[in-house]
Specification:
226 residues, mainly alpha, Rossmann fold, three-stranded parallel β-sheet, 54% helix
Amino acid sequence: MRNADFPSRERLLHKCGSLDNCIRIIEEQCKNSQHILVKTIRMSLELADLALLYFPELKIIHLIRDPRGITNSRLHGGFSLTRKVESHSENVCSRFEEDLNFVQEIRSKSLSSITIVLYEALAEKPLSGAKFLYNFVGLPISNSTLVWVYNSTHAEDNGGFFGTARKDSAANAYKWRNELAFTTIQTIDKYCTTVYTMVGYLPMINNNSRNLQIVRQNVSNFYGFM
């Protein structure tokens, strides 16, 4: 379903009158759509691997964000970390490693079933990223969708913590470089070295390297959008 075909939140609420009615309308549109997209948070790729047994046509897009960006977002988004930065970093990056290993396992069985996308790459190159994603799932991308992507990543104002519109999506992705304490960055780097190696993130060498232009390196066996 194209973005232009799907009503905005305001028009949908005006049309259906209540949240329950809106949900029913959206469900009906999904049931009648040729393609269905499901966004999941913190779902293990082990489960995604099992899902392919039941849905062999399934396409999996595994989105990865720099662990330092994740930590900064949680610290500044009105949430308190349930664990100290040390245990939080260890938990996040051990999950990353586990999922990345499952990516390799899935690709060994079906190269076309899964791809990796770096959050920062999408923020830096939103139009190229959108084209990559549509191509991966085998769908054409409309001009109206590209316009929506551009407007969402070059908005007049930020859309709030839970919003999707950003004045500068790339700057937003790297806010952690100026907002996190260097000691916090060092702690995260310590527990996430393996993940960095697997996807190309670079540790912060010292406090003077916050504004370095090179923040990632190419990984020869990386399969996805970076």
